[in-house]
Amino acid sequence: MAAGLPTEGTNAQHPRAGDLARKDVPTCGLTEKLGDVQERAKAQGWDAAVVVNDERVVFGLLRSEELGGDPQQLIEKAMRPGPSTYRPYVSLHEMLHAMVDHKLVNAPVTTSDGRLVGLLLQADVAAAMEKEK
Question: Is the whole model's pTM more than 0.70, yes or no?
Answer without folding.
Answer: yes
